[in-house]
């Protein structure tokens, strides 16, 4: 099932063992090389300490929050050596500029949808600048259309690159 990223803003992290809220989500940890959500930054409900919840420790998603086995599933950043570089990168997808491979500016990422089973980001939702939005709505970009991701932008295929020439020139 695809889930919008905005649906998880400030969601509770709930322990299945105690039924209590143990933390709340702050933001995702996204690997820009494959657009996989590796985990979430969370804040401990009691100590207000910043911790990490790895996606492999999530047992269930619900409208009320994310369920894990216990508070012990939350880790301190220094304990996660395997994803240390990814944590230091602090990659944020929302707000990234989007442009085509031919350097045509499209807009900015305003939201994304991810598969809650694989945790891969499946679609990007891009808002167009005001002067371009007058002739159309926002743009949805599938992950297969992404060519490259840099620290500053997301590069996608040229928008008409896969449309047959006959389909483009219908008015002739």
- What is the CATH superfamily of the largest domain? PRC-barrel domain
Summarize model confidence as the mean pLDDT.
88
Q: Compute the separation of the termini in Å.
A: 42 Å
> Could you tell me the radius of gyration in angstroms?
19 Å
CATH topology of the largest domain: SH3 type barrels
Description:
The protein is mainly β and 172 residues long. The protein folds into two domains: 2-89, PRC-barrel domain (SH3 type barrels, Roll), CATH 2.30.30.240; 97-159, PRC-barrel domain (SH3 type barrels), CATH 2.30.30.240. It is 8% helix and 45% strand. It contains three helices and 14 strands. The strands form two sheets. Strands 1, 9, 10, 11, 12, 13 and 14 form a seven-stranded mixed β-sheet that branches. The chain has a seven-stranded mixed β-sheet with strand order 6-7-2-3-4-5-8, with no helix packed on it. Strand 13 and strand 14 form a beta hairpin. The protein is elongated, with a radius of gyration of 19 Å.
Which key phrases capture this entry?
172 residues; SH3 type barrels; 14 strands; 7-stranded mixed sheet; mainly beta
Summary?
This protein has 172 residues and is mainly beta. The protein has helices at 84-89, 130-133, 165-168; strands at residues 2-4, 12-15, 21-31, 36-44, 50-54, 58-62, 65-68, 74-75, 97-100, 105-115, 121-127, 139-142, 146-149, 153-156.
């Amino acid at each position: 099932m695809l889930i919008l990223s905005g649906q998880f803003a400030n969601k509770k992290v709930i322990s299945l063992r105690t039924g209590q809220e143990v933390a709340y989500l702050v933001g995702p940890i996204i690997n820009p090389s494959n657009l996989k959500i590796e985990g979430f930054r969370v804040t401990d409900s009691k100590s207000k300490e910043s911790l990490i919840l790895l996606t492999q420790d999530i047992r269930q998603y619900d409208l009320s929050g994310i369920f894990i086995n216990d508070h012990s599933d939350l880790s301190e950043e220094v304990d996660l050596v395997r994803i240390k570089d990814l944590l230091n990168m602090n990659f944020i997808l929302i707000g990234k500029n989007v442009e085509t491979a031919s350097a045509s500016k499209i807009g900015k990422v305003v939201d994304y949808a991810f598969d809650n089973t694989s945790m891969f980001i499946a679609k990007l939702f891009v808002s167009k600048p005001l002067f371009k939005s007058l002739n159309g709505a926002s743009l949805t970009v599938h992950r297969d259309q992404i060519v490259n991701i840099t620290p500053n932008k997301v590069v996608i295929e040229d928008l008409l690159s896969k449309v047959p020439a006959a389909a483009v020139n219908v008015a002739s």
